[in-house]
């Protein structure tokens, strides 16, 4: 699997419907089990490794995901490049519902998650540089895939990672906006930090599934979010199939 790009699917991409299943590898790590077996798949002629972040049937909420096992598992199979898919709320006007965004920065508001491989248990310690949390080369690859598929992608944006699973208050979103956030989600961290600690190239493709709290006169409902996911994830899959084959 080592020459393949791995895709970590998020909400709305727990199973990759329409993909041909090639093989499956259960993953046990020093940190416990990954969210699901790692699956080698083929979609529209492109091969990749797929890991549903929330597990099969979306059983792990964002704060209960074993991010360390997921990243360790990918690394242990020799994977060196990871594209994450994240469903997010939109804050910046360019990040309206249905928009696809390739973020370039993260602010971490999550807490209480196992967030590092350097937890002091084995005497190893490194302070990795996370100034640029996403790999520029992988970001360019996704952006080029969007261009060749005729799909508009927003190039850059600050992803605010909240704890969840509840959505935010309107005042919290105003605070995130003042902090410079363009998107809000619950899963970019500690995933991106762990990927850097493990030496993996990592980038994300975000689907905006709702206006963030207080930015629309309508309440946020799971029904409305599901409708955006149903159409948007098809486009996400198409862009990623091209990105992983490039
Ligand atoms: N907030 C946090 N996470 C999310 C949202 C949101 O509005 N939408 C999808 N994931």
From TrEMBL:
Phosphate binds at residues 11, 53-54, 187. Pathway: Purine metabolism; purine nucleoside salvage. One of its GO terms (biological process) is L-methionine salvage from methylthioadenosine. Catalyzes the reversible phosphorylation of S-methyl-5'-thioinosine (MTI) to hypoxanthine and 5-methylthioribose-1-phosphate. Involved in the breakdown of S-methyl-5'-thioadenosine (MTA), a major by-product of polyamine biosynthesis. Catabolism of (MTA) occurs via deamination to MTI and phosphorolysis to hypoxanthine. It catalyses: S-methyl-5'-thioinosine + phosphate = 5-(methylsulfanyl)-alpha-D-ribose 1-phosphate + hypoxanthine. It is an enzyme of class 2 (transferase). This is Probable S-methyl-5'-thioinosine phosphorylase. Its EC number is 2.4.2.44. GO terms for cellular component: cytosol. It comes from Litorivivens lipolytica. Substrate binds at residues 186, 210-212. HAMAP family: MTAP. GO terms for molecular function: S-methyl-5-thioadenosine phosphorylase activity. It comes from the Bacteria. Although this enzyme belongs to the family of MTA phosphorylases based on sequence homology, it has been shown that conserved amino acid substitutions in the substrate binding pocket convert the substrate specificity of this enzyme from 6-aminopurines to 6-oxopurines. Residues 5-244 form the Nucleoside phosphorylase domain.
């Amino acid at each position: 699997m080592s020459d393949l790009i791995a895709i970590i699917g998020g909400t709305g991409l727990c199973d990759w419907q329409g993909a041909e299943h090639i093989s499956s590898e259960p993953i046990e790590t020093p940190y416990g089990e990954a969210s699901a077996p790692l699956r080698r798949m083929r979609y529209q002629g492109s091969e990749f490794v797929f890991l549903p972040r929330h597990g099969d049937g979306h059983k792990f909420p964002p704060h209960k995901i074993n991010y360390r096992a997921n990243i360790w598992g990918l690394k242990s199979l020799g994977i060196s490049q990871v594209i994450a898919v994240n469903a997010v709320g939109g804050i910046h006007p360019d990040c309206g519902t249905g928009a696809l965004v390739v973020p370039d920065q993260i602010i971490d508001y999550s807490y209480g998650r196992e967030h590092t491989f350097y937890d002091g248990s084995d005497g190893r310690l490194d302070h990795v540089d996370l100034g640029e949390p996403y790999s520029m080369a992988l970001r360019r690859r996704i952006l080029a895939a969007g261009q060749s598929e005729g799909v508009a992608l927003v190039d850059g944006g600050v992803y605010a990672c909240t704890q969840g699973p509840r959505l935010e208050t309107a005042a919290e979103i105003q605070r995130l906006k003042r902090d410079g956030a363009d998107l809000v989600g619950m899963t970019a961290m500690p995933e991106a930090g762990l990927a850097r600690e493990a030496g993996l190239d990592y980038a994300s493709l975000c689907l905006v599934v709702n206006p963030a709290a207080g930015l629309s006169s309508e309440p946020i409902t799971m029904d409305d979010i599901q409708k955006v996911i149903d159409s948007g994830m098809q486009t996400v899959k198409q862009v990623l199939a091209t990105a992983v084959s490039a």
